[in-house]
Amino acid sequence: LENRKLKRAFNRLTGNVIKEQRNCSQTRENTAFNCSSNQRGNIELLKVEKHKIGCLYHKETPLTTERPTTRSSTTTSKRSNPTDAPMLNYIFDVHSTVNKHQHYHDHRWGPYFEGESQNITVQAGATVKLDCRISLLQDKTVSWLRRQEDGEKMSLLTFAQQTYTGDSRYTLEFQYPDNWRLQIKDVNSSDEGQYECQISTHPPKFIHVNLHINAPSVQIVDAMGEPLRDKYYEADSTIELLCVIKHIAMQMQYSVVQWLHDNRTLNYDTTRGGISVKTDLMEVGANSTLSVARVGPSDSGNYTCLLTTMPDQPATVHVHVLNGESLAELHHGVASRRRGADTSSVMLLVFLGFVLSCLVPR
Predict the structure, then answer these.
(1) Number of H helices, E strands in the chain
(2) Which fold has domain 217-322?
(3) Per-domain residue ranges of the chain
(4) pLDDT digits over 269-285, tens only?
(5) What pTM value is reported for the model?
(6) 46: exposed, middle or buried (C-beta count within 10 Å: 0-12, 13-18, 19+)?
(7) What is the pLDDT of residues 37-69, one digit of tens each?
(8) Which of 32, 101, 188, 216 has the most crowded CB, counting CB atoms within 10 A?
């Protein structure tokens, strides 16, 4: 008689949970339930009550290794439940059954992760979302921790839905029904490392996420894509410099490529004239071309390309504007100096050979 009462209580509470979840599912968007706080609270209270009744029912109904022969055993065998408490097994995974997840037969007695440890690589400046999906959480708590560089100490980032780090870029975004997502905005190289999603079981259960940040780079390059240090131009010619930015998330409202001549910004320079900047933004980088027409000696100096969101990593090239000397004459002078240096080297070798021959006894 007692077991019958418990079963009726099971059925009533199970029906109430399913009803609450169906109310949520009516406003479902992108496969995520959009439940109000009251609905979520009602569901959790119902689950707690079912858990209490389930414990009583399990206590009153002993386990057996024999397969039941009653009609109800047909339904039980289809669920692959090896006990005489099929309702208890069902209660612990009502949500998974409603949403057609078939994991409960392996993890019916406690919380478990739906995914595995993983490696994630993102670009600097991006927003990264570390997912941690857990089924059958019941009364346990989820925490996010980060392993320190020494590999021994852990720092607490979140506990339940509270954030315990002073870095405002870290937030916990719970995605109903089971995703405890850690979000990190504007990531940089200091965010690289191992993160741990942990369940407060005894002993704790956890999975790791290894986060790698691609190091950003800013370079002024030549036509072959090689970094430039010096560039020579004839007077009245046009300076053209290409700045290549890689491995950084470009956000239109935040990231701006700036060109400077010594300490003067060229992007919005209207006093000189003949200056243009063309920047092609990509998802994880940019190509920016600076053009300066009709150059003279005053246009010599350092030209710098930098990203406003990463000002500590500029690229600089020294531009030489030749005054009354052509590039051909410059190259001819360099070649003559090289030939003179080669001749001097040959004469030095001949002299050293003569000295050595005199020192060797015959």
Answers:
(1) 6, 20
(2) Immunoglobulin-like (2.60.40)
(3) 2-103, 113-214, 217-322
(4) 778 889 999 999 888 88
(5) 0.53
(6) buried
(7) 566 666 666 666 656 666 555 554 443 333 333
(8) 216
